[in-house]
Structure prediction request, 513 residues.
Amino acid sequence: MSVQIVQISKKFHHHGTDQTVLDQINVTVNKGEFISILGPSGCGKSTLLSIVAGLTKPSSGKVLMNGDEVKGPGSDRGVVFQQAALFPWLSVEENVMFPLIKKMTKEEARRRAQQFLSMVQLSQYGKHSPHELSGGMQQRVSIARALAMDPEVLLMDEPFGALDEQTRSRLHEVLEKIWMETKKTILFVTHSIQESLKLSDRILVMGTRPGRIIDEIKVDFPRPREQFRKELAEYEERIQKLLKTEIDKVVKEEENYAANR
Amino acid sequence: MQQIVKRIIFFAALLGVWEAIVKLLGIKPVVFPAPSNIFQALWKGFADLTLVYDLLASFERLIIGLAIALLLGTLLGVILAGSKTIDDTVGSLILALQSVPSIVWLPLAIIWFGLNEKAIIFIVVLGGTLVMTLNMRTGIKSVPPIYIKAARTMDYNGFSLFAKVIFPAAIPHAVTGARLAWAFAWRGLMGSELLSTGPGLGYTLKFASDFGDMALVIGIIFIIALIGIFVDLVFFSRIEKKVLKKWGLQEQ
Prediction:
């Protein structure tokens, strides 16, 4: 096993009341597995990923990487955010070299950056500035940057959420190919049911208020999965039902709150 | 019509009308000189090299003062951005001082340093430092948190995080700060030179005024304005545009 999330809870102090964002989450991620964390907005899925990344401290519980407790961020966990978060003062190539230059010579870093840029089919764009690239291309650079430091796990926080439909589905293919080539463990946060069904081995469905895992769905269709549209549609319906109860609950709470004001 | 053509026509017309009015009404050059008197005075000043020495002296003070101001301002800005307590206390003091024109400190500076270079440079430094400090502070405080998060996941902390991410991300604000610092320093320099000993543009302006040479007074005002425009538009605006473009903050 690669990542273990053990009894993680997270409370935020908000206007004098404690709000439980995550309630006793337990997940074990196996090496090489592609796991999606799926849930409605506000369920705490991004917070959970941020805790695994070491950027957010949990209120209780711990995250283990190969048995060692996570104390903070580290290059064993590469993170891809919703925004590409490339540094504008560096060229595309220098951005990918950024995590490497501390560990190797400039020449080695450049060679390695080129290698990962060509993996995301952007080897031609090394000398460009990030803002000269489209949103989808920037996100590919961001993936190359995370992969270049050879992390144990790739954490992706709605990485394609801000992109248009065509770009997104193209990036799904790119990511799937990279995953099969590199055999990286991937933890992928999304609110799109189709996205999670298309990409993952296992889907953790999260409910909201408090955020918790309400179901775990194994998806073991061979890839590419376009040929299993009908079967996947059944899964989609099943997950939709699960999430609907959760969203209805939130709406009801809002209505009660509004009525009691 | 192109902007530059419009401008040339406008300024030529302005000088022409000015010359005509002064000559037609027979106004004495001591009261209000015509452009031809002004160019004559400037010609003479450059021919006998007084204005050249003045320019060199003024620029020497400016460069020394501005360099100290930029260095000090950057350092102070970083400190303010780094500590909330210092920002709440020293920060408010700097904001208050910023609303005071630096020239009013000259009497104190003269007592501390004497009526010499040091007093003038002190005023220049004061004028530039405060505005640089405030801009640097804003620049560092408005670094997008996502940059810092991303860098931390790539094993950057402490000094390397600051040097490789936070500081470069703040550079657009630093450039704006430097431009404003130059403007404040330039004003402070001219003011304090008026009240000091020469050589220097401000000093020669005062000297000309004492002898009723209004043509040279206005001539020097021209020079001050031209230098201001030149440094601002040709030097700082270009750097600012380049930086904004590189940082992707401006389309084109």
